[in-house]
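$ ./design --mode recover --in tokens.txt
reading tokens...
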């Protein structure tokens, strides 16, 4: 097995989490944040304080998390999941401009996981890489932005348990990550940052800057809810974005705001929308700005594998082998 990236600390030494195990499920239900040891290329988590813990962060998974669904369904085909892999570690950057707007990018349709989704720049953390360095590297690789040292501040926002495919009804999961969201606050304005952006067309097909008002509406959409959300009357009908053409050129795009309010469908598709983890991170960003109240148990704060909300959103097992 490759080097463990995500470990849980119980009564003994930290133990790696296997691919098929839900990190939230193992930590159990709890109203408070998770204690974290943020090390080079590694994350140690516990539901209690421990020596070396450097942060206390909210940890969440979507109500339709496939690993939660597998835990709750007798006879689930866990043997078909990888046995020689652990949970991977990723990092994503919520880049805030001086104007209090944040950068989101749209993943290209050709990517193997999460195609056509709006996300914050991020990706895998390399072995022996500091988590902030990994986030800044991913920001540069995807957007071309290199932030000068001393020209920004940063703070960890929270942890998200991510799977792809995101729902068991789409097929058995092939990817399993804990994503650390970092808020990086630049001293530069949105206009200055925009002038420096050079998106990587292999990963990014469009980008935009989101302000707090639209971000609050996006963050309020509840993936897994049965009741459709209605577009608030005071929101703009569209949000300005920049789209990359097939010729490599950039052109302005008026993205319908309703596109950003879509939720994850029960059936597999690559419909354009904001990822569930990004909505979680936007809620934490707004909380940091003092725009919303802290996450509550009703919104799935921390990990609550036995909650009624999750039970109502468990997907049935896929009809055939996982894709």
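writing sequence...
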């Amino acid at each position: 097995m490759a080097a463990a990236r995500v470990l849980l600390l119980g009564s003994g030494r930290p133990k790696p989490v296997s691919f098929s195990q839900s990190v939230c499920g193992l930590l159990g239900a709890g109203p408070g944040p998770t204690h974290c040891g943020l090390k080079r290329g590694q994350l140690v988590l516990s539901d209690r304080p421990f020596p070396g813990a450097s942060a206390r962060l909210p940890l969440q998974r979507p109500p339709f998390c496939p690993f939660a669904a597998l835990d709750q369904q007798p006879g689930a085909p866990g043997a078909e999941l990888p046995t020689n892999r652990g949970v991977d570690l990723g990092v994503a950057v919520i880049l805030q401009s001086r104007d209090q707007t944040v950068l989101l990018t749209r993943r290209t349709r050709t990517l193997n996981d999460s195609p056509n989704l709006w996300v914050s720049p991020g990706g895998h953390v390399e072995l022996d890489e500091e988590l902030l360095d990994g986030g800044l590297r991913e920001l540069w690789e995807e957007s071309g932005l290199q932030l000068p040292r001393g020209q920004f501040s940063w703070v960890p926002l929270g942890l998200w348990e991510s799977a792809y495919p995101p729902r068991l009804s789409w097929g058995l999961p092939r990817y399993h990550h804990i994503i650390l969201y970092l808020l990086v606050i630049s001293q530069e304005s949105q206009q200055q940052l925009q002038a420096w952006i050079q998106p990587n067309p292999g990963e990014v097909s469009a980008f935009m800057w989101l302000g707090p008002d639209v971000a609050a509406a996006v963050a309020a959409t509840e993936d897994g809810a049965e009741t459709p959300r209605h577009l608030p009357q005071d929101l703009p009908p569209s949000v300005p974005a920049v789209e990359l053409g097939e010729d490599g050129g950039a052109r302005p795009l008026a993205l319908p705001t309703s596109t950003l309010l879509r939720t994850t469908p029960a059936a597999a598709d690559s419909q354009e929308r904001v990822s569930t983890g990004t909505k979680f991170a936007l809620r934490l960003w707004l909380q940091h700005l003092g725009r919303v109240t802290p996450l509550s148990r009703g919104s799935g704060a921390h990990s609550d594998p036995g909650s009624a909300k999750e039970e109502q959103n468990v997907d049935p097992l896929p009809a055939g082998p996982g894709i």
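exit 0
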